[in-house]
Amino acid sequence: MAHPDRTLLAGVMGWPVMHSRSPMMHNYWFKTHHLTGTYLPLAIEPDGIGPALKALHALGFAGCNLTIPHKETAMAFMDEIDETAKRIGAISCVVVRKDGSLKGLNNDGYGYIHGILEDVPDWKADAGPVVIMGAGGGARAVSLSLADRGAKDIRIINRSPERAQGLAREFGAPMTAVAWEDRHAALEDAAMVVNTTSQGMVGQSALDLSLAKLPKHALVSDIVYIPKETPLLKEARERGNKTVNGLGMLLHQGRPAFRDWFGIEPQVTPELRAMMEATI
Fold first, then answer.
1. Candidates 71, 86, 216, 234; catalytic one
2. 0.85 surpassed by pTM
3. Does residue 4 surpass a pLDDT of 60?
4. Same structural domain for residues 153 and 62?
């Protein structure tokens, strides 16, 4: 979809936001699809999210992505929210429509699933119990996407038990809450472990989880992508488990956003992945 009369615009709103790798990814897609456009990091303080979103249409933006701390608060400024985003309770993508109205979507679950499938093409969500560490926004997106793919036993574990219990109660089967003190034992028959917390990220302590009881055939994934290998993934790899980091989730969640903004669905190429990895 070419627009020779103007520069195509999109961006990511966050606070902070300059660390984001999304501009590199979307600007790569502009280049490979021969589009005149740019994708910008937009540092928006929490109190400024409403005015910033309302300004998108006047500034000529096709839309934007949202990151911490805006994914939940931005929902109040949408004219329409898709069903997936409503279920998750957060939006990751905003589409500016021709009349200036705003539609909110959440592509995080899509990105997570396709990131797994890129690395493990024969992966099945119903291969066995899934243990999810964390009960925040990442856990909500991941757990719902896994349930939609057929997972039959999803165990939510969080240091604050009330959050895990609340998530399991809200979503219902196949999700159940497991007590924090039972986290190690919960891995004994697991087919998959997912860290949706920030533990293991650069500057954060490692996730407090022993893999001693985890079957060697289980897949271990982390939505963190900085560093490329968190302490959790390192331990899993060294004991023989297949691992997947969070970079694929970031890359693949961008595809439907770019499509909704500009009418072209881009691909995650080896060149793009290598370029992104070189900056981590």
1. 71
2. yes
3. no
4. no
